[in-house]
Design a protein that fits this description.
It is a single chain. By secondary structure, the protein is an alpha/beta fold. The chain folds into two domains: 114 residues, Ribonuclease Inhibitor (Leucine-rich repeat, LRR (right-handed beta-alpha superhelix)), CATH 3.80.10; 93 residues, Leucine-rich repeat, LRR (right-handed beta-alpha superhelix), CATH 3.80.10. The chain is built from six helices and 16 strands. Strands 2-3-5-7-9-11-13-15 form an eight-stranded mixed sheet, with no helix packed on it. A four-stranded mixed sheet has the order 1-4-6-8.
C-alpha cells in the first residue's frame, strides 16, 4: 500500500510540474493581450494568477523541456484587433504561432520574426502593413528554425525584405500584398530548403530571376497577377523537382492578367 501511495504521489507531482507555464511565459502572453483593442473574449480565461497552459488557444508540452513550455499559440479567427506584441517572440519554447484571419494591424515585430524556436508562423488575412524585419542581426550568424512563413493577404508594401538567416524555410506565402520592386535573385542562396514560393497578387516588376531554377527543392512557384514582363526562364523547367512533377507546365507560370 505504501508503495502504491508513493507511486501516486510521484504521478501527481509529475502531472503538476508539466501543467504549469512559467511566470515569464505568463507575462509574455499577458503583454500580447494588453496590446489588443478587441480580444475576442480571451480575457475570460487569460487571467493573472492562473496557469496559462489552461488558457484558450494555448498548448503546453514537456517534450521540449523537462518543464512544461508553451509550444502553440493558436488564435486564428478570434476577431482580434490591435497589434502583435514583441513579447510573443520571447516565448522560449514556442513552435507554432497562428494569428491568421483576424484584424491585427501595425507591424510584425522583429522579435517574432527572429524567434529561435518558431517553426510555423501564420499571420495571413490581417491588416499588417509595416516593413518586415525578416533578417536577424547579421552579426549573430543565426540560422532561424522557421520552416513555414505565411504573411499573405495583408498590407505589406515596399520591396520584399531580405531573408538572410532562414536556411530552413520550406514555404513562403506572401501573396495578396503590395510588395513592389524586383523579385529577389538570391532566394536559392539564402533559402536552400525552399519548396513553395507564392508571390502572386503583388506589384512586382521586372522579370522572373533565372536563378530560381537553381532552387533544388522548389516545386511550387506562383507569381501571377504582378507587373512582370519577359519570358519564363528555361532554367525553371530544368530544375530537378519541376522535372519530377509532370503537372507543371508553362501555362501554369504565366503572370499576366
Amino acid at each position: 500500500m505504501s508503495i502504491l501511495c508513493l507511486v501516486l504521489v510521484l504521478m501527481l507531482s509529475s502531472a503538476s510540474s508539466t501543467s504549469c507555464c512559467t511566470e515569464r511565459e505568463n507575462n509574455c502572453l499577458l503583454q500580447f493581450l494588453a496590446g489588443l483593442s478587441q480580444d475576442g473574449g480571451l480575457a475570460a480565461s487569460w487571467r493573472l494568477g492562473t496557469d496559462c497552459c489552461s488558457w484558450e488557444g494555448i498548448t503546453c508540452s514537456s517534450m521540449v523541456s523537462k518543464d512544461a513550455m508553451v509550444t502553440d499559440v493558436l488564435l486564428a479567427s478570434k476577431r482580434l484587433e490591435g497589434s502583435i506584441s514583441p513579447a510573443l517572440g520571447r516565448l522560449p519554447g514556442l513552435l507554432r504561432l497562428n494569428l491568421s484571419h483576424n484584424s491585427l494591424s501595425g507591424g510584425l515585430p522583429s522579435e517574432v520574426m527572429s524567434s529561435g524556436s518558431i517553426i510555423i508562423l501564420d499571420v495571413s488575412f490581417n491588416s499588417l502593413g509595416r516593413i518586415l524585419p525578416l533578417s536577424p542581426p547579421l552579426t549573430t550568424g543565426l540560422k532561424l528554425p522557421l520552416q513555414v512563413l505565411n504573411i499573405s493577404s495583408n498590407k505589406f508594401s515596399t520591396e520584399l525584405p531580405s531573408l538572410d538567416g532562414m536556411a530552413h524555410l520550406i514555404t513562403l506565402s506572401a501573396s495578396n500584398n503590395r510588395f513592389s520592386g524586383h523579385i529577389p535573385t538570391n532566394f536559392c542562396t539564402n533559402l536552400p530548403s525552399l519548396a513553395v514560393l507564392e508571390l502572386s497578387y503583388n506589384q512586382f516588376s521586372g522579370s522572373i530571376p533565372p536563378g530560381l531554377g537553381n532552387c533544388s527543392r522548389l516545386r511550387v512557384l506562383k507569381v501571377g497577377h504582378n507587373n512582370l514582363c519577359g519570358t519564363i526562364p528555361d532554367e525553371l523547367f530544368n530544375a530537378e523537382y519541376f522535372n519530377r512533377v509532370p503537372l507543371f507546365s508553362k501555362r501554369q507560370f504565366t503572370w499576366n492578367t
